[in-house]
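User: Okay, second chain of the day. Same drill as before: sequence in, structure tokens out.
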Amino acid sequence: QTFRHTTAARARWLPPCVFRMAGLGGVGASAVAAVDRMQNVSGGMAAANATEPPQHFFPGPDCIARVATQEQAIVEMPYGGWFSYITGDAVSGFCIVPYGFGHWFFALMLSIMAGIAVITTLCVLFIFLRRRIKGCFGKDKEARALTCPTSSITAVIPCYLPNEQYIIEETVDWIMEKVESPGDFTVFVVYNTPRDLPEIERRLEKMQSRVWPHDRRFRVLRVMDSKSKAANLNAALKEVTDDYVIIYDADHHPDRLSLMLLWEKMVRLNQDCVQGSYYMRNLRQNQWGCCPPCTFPFLSRFIDAEFFVDWFFMKLVTRTFFMGHAYFSGSNALWRTKVLNSKEFSTTAQTEDIDMAIQQLLEGRNIEFCAESRSGELAPINCAGMWKQRLRWTIGWDETSLKHSGAFTSSGTLNCRARCGLVWTFLVRWAMMVVTVGAVYVGLPLTTIWPLDDAHWGKLVVVLGRLTFAMGCGPWLIAVLEAILQAPSRGMQGATQVFFVFLVASPFGFAGFFVLNFFLQLASCFKLSTGRVGAWEVTKRAPAAPGAPRAPAAKADGKEEEEVPRCASEGGLPNPSSSELATVV
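Assistant: Same drill. Structure tokens below.
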């Protein structure tokens, strides 16, 4: 009997002839038959194990029911399958497992994302329809702007001269000759430089005596002890005597009626500040690639499309449905001079404009957006320049948010809605980034392993995931439609912009920009936590003109660093005349 047990246990290792040679045909035959049956069973189990799906990433509690087929399991899932999923195979049976912690946590993140996607889509749709209704039944904004009362306005242009000496004259000529104003108009260039630049400084001085169209005036001031844009602005505001002041960056070329549109909205709505929008004007420069033969003019077009979606929808969503107010963004903004003079620009902040915006909002100032008032600016020269620029923006937003976070709920004259809007805009964004990483960049790869269906995830996760994606496509389609409707205002550039808006506003474009912002946020947190923020750096904005000399870059502290190409116009002209400037544009 022991022999039989041993043979039955080990016979699978021996061929049948061994039993026949030993004269144990009966035992050998029965053992071999038994072993054959064992091999069939083990083979079936091996096959089942080979086809069995991998264990679910979120292991749930014990199985609450086990059935023979997946169809039967789907039918018997409690609560219609909303809060449970199925594991198992045809050999061992299918097990119905209720949600565990992982599933509930994933469902919570998806529900937050789905809720925000639904709200954003509805808000974007409202803004789109409101713009169309106003366009059909409201009075033309440009015609209304031309009938507004007159007033004197000063345009302040802060300038870091070593980096912008080759574009500042072009900018002054453009604003003086192209931009319409509601009355007397003065352009005031206020600059700083760590060393004397006799040639450009002499030309700026001579421009003060030039006869300008419509008796406009030009002023220039060098701030000797300035090391930042904020210090330049503080010095300029002390010299401004007009009741209204508009701020432009040194690379900005405002549209012809942009100032009139800002003025019309300020008068009509009795605002303290009206903030206009930006777009990229150097769209044909090679700014994407590793070397000149392999570069393409895509970077500025991607940024231009991003700005379009942001200015015409996202910022208006924040203003209309959350904060109840807009916020100052640094350039192309019309202010009441006494209001802006009531606070000082921070000379230590990376983004002095956001710091000023929060200070004014906490004082209860009224700020409004006017997306139709557009101003063209220069995009960074390449991806590295864009990274440095946006890292400064991210650090500035983070340090300003931390600096004023306590005041959002405890000081100032804001109402409850405005306080909640500030918290949402400046603080909740960090939590939303974490939720997005968990819901999209962790959840999406998991759905490539376990398909997004009721059997693997349960109806709750499936419905939330599909709702998030469907609602996320809403702003995409609306933004593309808005770009199509506004394309005629920019001619061929508008038609090209439609394609890039289609790319940038799509879920894939959102994913790409989110990855960029996520790494920017990580870099910002690292620099802020380790005290490695450093000084304010100027931004490379355009390639050097062919054969043009190169000027050393500098930080806010005036220390010269690596060489940076001097900025040139879109056509590569270092100092175009008025006729050349019109040809380039």
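Residues 232 and 415 are 33 Å apart (CA to CA).

User: Thanks, on to the next one.
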